[in-house]
Amino acid sequence: MARTPSTMPDLGTPAPDFALPATDGSTIRKAHFAGKPLLAMFICNHCPFVKHLRDHLAATCREYGEKGVAIV
């Protein structure tokens, strides 16, 4: 895998507006989560690193989802 420098914005930076396709054919938009903390992860389900962390990511998403954090 190529080493690529991070372009992550600073934590706390407001997310830009977005429209993402959902698995049910609908569109998910930032406005759907107004007033809630939002964690957006751009990951690939066949990436070896994601596969390695899959169970931990799922558990973390469940934990924070129960605390009111929206996760996409």
Topology pattern, helix = H, strand = E: EEEHE
Mean pLDDT: 89
Structural class: alpha+beta
Largest sheet: 2 strands, antiparallel
- The best one-word shape is globular
Distinct helical segment count? 1
Give the percentage of residues in beta strands. 5-15%
Question: How far apart lie the N and C ends?
Answer: 25 Å
Low-confidence stretches: none
Strands of the largest sheet, in order across it? 1-2
Helix content: 25-40%
The number of strands is 4
Task: Please explain how this structure is put together.
With 72 residues, the protein is α+β, with helices and mostly antiparallel strands. It contains 1 helix and 4 strands; from the N terminus they run βββαβ. The chain has one helix spanning 48-66; strands at residues 19-21, 27-29, 38-39, 70-71. Strand 3, helix 1 (48-66) and strand 4 (70-71) form a beta-alpha-beta unit. The protein is globular. The two termini are 25 Å apart. The model has no long low-confidence stretch (mean pLDDT 89).
Key features of this structure:
72 residues; alpha+beta; two-stranded antiparallel ribbon; two-stranded parallel sheet; 1 helix; 26% helix; globular
In short:
This protein is an alpha+beta fold. The chain has one helix at 48-66; strands spanning 19-21, 27-29, 38-39, 70-71.
Write the SSE topology.
Elements: E1 19-21, E2 27-29, E3 38-39, H1 48-66, E4 70-71
Parallel strand pairs: 3-4
Antiparallel strand pairs: 1-2
